[in-house]
Amino acid sequence: FIIDDVSIKKIIDDAIKNVFILCTLKKISINVSGVDFKIKCDLMWQVEAITYILKNCIEHSKENSNIDILIGSNNIYPSILIHDYGVGGDYLDLPHIFERFCKGKNRSNDI
Predict the structure, then answer these.
(1) What is the pLDDT of residues 35-94, one digit of tens each?
(2) Strand pairing of 78-84 and 66-73?
(3) Which of 14, 40, 42, 74 could form a disulfide with 47 if both were Cys (CB 3.0 to 4.6 A apart)?
(4) What's the predicted TM-score (pTM) here?
């Protein structure tokens, strides 16, 4: 791990670059808003985590849709809110979302 002060915007921009082709193929726009700030983290691992989330959002979104990313913080912690407009997951799947190879009820058949 290489822990450093890293801009949230840099993490998000790098992750968006990683999914650019997928977005282009499905005609999906990613909109980023909020105020940039720095966190102490390993850039590579944070970019990988956000890339994975964005890839999942793209796979479960319809063509010609959007993904919204809101950067925020409060007095306790920073936040990145990622919202897609796909079908969403079933609340019964929630306890299992961190299990490797978990397949939820609303998964698409083409994955």
Answers:
(1) 999 999 999 999 999 999 999 899 989 999 999 999 998 888 889 999 998 876 665 666
(2) antiparallel
(3) 14
(4) 0.82
Q: Which amino acid is at 7?
A: S
E-strand stretches of the chain:
3-7, 29-34, 38-42, 66-73, 78-84
Those residues with Cβ within 8 angstroms of residue 22's Cβ, 6 or more apart along the chain or in another chain: 28, 55, 58, 59
Question: What is the C-alpha to C-alpha distance for residues 8 and 2, in angstroms, rounded to an integer?
Answer: 16
Residue found by looking up tokens 């002060």 in the block:
5
Calculate helix-pair angle for 8-18, 43-59, nearest 10 degrees.
50
Q: What is the pLDDT of residue 87?
A: 73
**Spatial distance between the Cα atoms of 71 and 18, rounded to a whole number of angstroms:** 19
Residue burial 76-90, b: 16+ Cβ < 10 Å; e: rest: eeeebebebebeeee
